[in-house]
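Notebook, p. 212. Picked up where the previous page left off. The plan for this session was modest: take the two constructs that came back from the sequencing core last week, fold each one, and keep the raw output in the notebook itself so nobody has to go hunting through shared drives later. Recording the first one now, exactly as returned: residue sequence, then the structure token string.
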Amino acid sequence: MSEKTVKEKQKPNFIEAVSMLLVLLAAVVVCVKADINIIPAMIVAIVWALIIAMKCGYTYNEIMEPVWDRCRGVVEIFLIILAIGMFVGAMIYSGTIPTIIYYLIKIVSPAMIVVLSFLLTTIVGIIIGTSWGTAGTVGVIMLSIAASMNVPMAIVAGAIASGTHVGQLCSPMSDTSNVCANFAEVDTMTMIKRMAYYTVPTIVIATVLYLVLGLGNGNAGASLEQVDLIRKEISTVFNTNPLVILPMVFVFFLTFKKKPILPTLTLASLVGVLFGMVFNHFSFVEGLHTLYNGFSLETTAGLSAEGFSDIFLNLVNRGGAMSMINAALIIIVATVYGTILYEVKAVNVIADVLFKHVKSRPAMCLSTIVVAGLVVALTSSSFLAEMMPKDLFGEKFKENGADLMDLVSSEATASTQFLTCIPWCDTAIFLAGLSGVPTLQALPYNFFGWGCAVMALILSVLGIGWKSGKRFFALNSTKTAEN
């Protein structure tokens, strides 16, 4: 590339940068209203982004080279999403999920399933520090139990999206907490304490709201007759020996040991096939078919669907890699779009214009959240969403009496949590594929997902937690040595 070509490159102007976002939002709205997949919307946005990029002096090959590099980087995410589908199918084939439901449906009240979905995923997420691992294990179980109880799935999906990501901000084992601490130049526990100013109240409020929602929808749950029917149907098709729960225990063990999620899910899926052959007498060939296309009562078990309840059929006829292929494809398309906008520095342009003169605590907090949210929406990268606000606003925070903990804690409300709220982000796609509930339907009930940002803004107005305001316990201002 010649020096002349480099000099001809320029950033988009403010109108062009904003238009790249507005075209996507408008196209997504059209797709949502028409009840069609958002991939066409993403393609329209990609074409428009390419037009703007070329207008700014980039050739097609120059802009697509980093796109291909980034797409290679998301291959593992693509495979993990497919592996989750395989895992769900295998856990039904083995009888693991049906057996867990068989025992828990008698003791868990429909009125409590919503709040339990939030609390259990929160606890496990904090212990293991892995949101996807928590969703793929505890999340799958709670979703299945809720479905068997006929509880509104949008509420449960929102509770699980919330709970699985509490650990990202509250667990010392979370990569997010450690990265945030590094950016803020403090130790991990100090960073967690700083973020606790808004995470703890949000957790408390979310718990109360989920309890109220559960109690309000308790009457919509399955009746005792339905519970007995579902248990009878499960025992008719599957061996409910408690030993078949072991494949799920195996996954919990490997996840707790911080083993990579892709081989963990793949190995657990194969173990599930083995258990299904031994305990349910299903064939090996049908086990492989289940990994690919999901469990089917008629194909896998050789039983007619007639005579089984709709709740039971919806419970077991699912899973398989192909059930997640749409979610996996959206990851690739969204990566292409986000990389183009990132390469032409559209976010920088918007931030320079909108947030150039901010000085107050609320304005600084809001600007950081907005920029981090934009980066998340464009790249699905929490790391970039944590890094860019620091580069843009680090000196501004210091000049106005705040510190790096104030900055990083503000952007953290968006860098990980908005991943569950924006329909084309990899985590939101993953969760929607897992629950079968579109992201926007679960969004009103994803209290922790958007609640942290709201709480952080409220506290910035009050000055609570800020260096220039009120801190109720000491926070180290420099990083301590960690062994």
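Okay, moving on. Second construct, recorded in the same format:
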Amino acid sequence: MPDTLTKLAYQTFQQGKQAFGYTHKTLLGRIREVVSPVEPGRTSEIPTATLAILKQRLDELTEVDWQDADAGVYPKQLLFDNPWDDFFKYYPAVVWDTPSVWDRSKKKQYQDFGTDVSTEGYPDYYLQNFHHQTDGYLGEMSAHLYDLQVEILFNGSADAMRRRILAPLKGHLDHLPGFPKVLDVACGTGRTLKMIRDTLPQTSLHGVDLSPTYLRKANELLSKEPGTLPQLIHANAESLPYLEGYFDATVSVFLFHELPAEVRQTVINECYRVTKPGGVFIICDSIQKVDTPEFAPMMENFPTIFHEPYYRHYSTDDMTARLESAGFRDVAVSNHFMSKYWVAKKA
């Protein structure tokens, strides 16, 4: 297929996902206004001008995603990679679970876990119903619904934001001999590991996560297609189970806004420890207030709507200073749509 047609197909695909995400949130929002309205004053209204900027940033993300694929940073098939089997199987469950999410939010039940879920041995900060979801990150259904929920939240752009780590990662690893080792810290359902494997099939991939259910989901996803399976370990990122200087590159996607400040620094220190001298550490996470002041109302609403107890501190935290205090140097920072990136080198 000619590149112009491929680009048009991708743009149409993204527009479809954007329309679906917007429609889903609009319809459920109107239903919530009737059956479980949010307390007055808990959230701020988003100005129309801000929504226009948001749409512009989303279009810019789609364009840079296409440009990277067209330049050969990653295969163009990745642009159309979507877990359709999970969508058709679990989208009804997303809708069905929504009233319980509203109820949990209204009652401020932030540490609500079923009797069949073991919470023993996990740090207190992790035992939260992040996003007000049932059983937090320890539930089986949570692992099945997460990727779909995040795609809806970001109007179909979550994978495009994840893919922004691939260009700096590929740029660093391409000149290395053998099978460079890469660690994904808080690998979740394995979406980022799958993208790295599709882009850099000669890498030796590793992933750690605190959730056993998410690791099972990651193994399920990564087993569906040919390729070497990443080594997945159930572990806390505060104490990574690897030797010092073991990895050529370390990455982390959407983790740090869900960590308390002191834990944020501990995890960065650990990532520094396990990264080789000359290696890189790449972070993808939420934008911060310093980046787009116009988005401040959304950043204020986010922790309230989705129960993100550590987000407000993260939104003003100096992550570059944290990286440098751990020993990283030459920290490059960039932004795409609702995400922010740090590429840090270990001397």
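Notes on construct two before I forget. The mean pLDDT is 94.
Flagging for discussion at group meeting.
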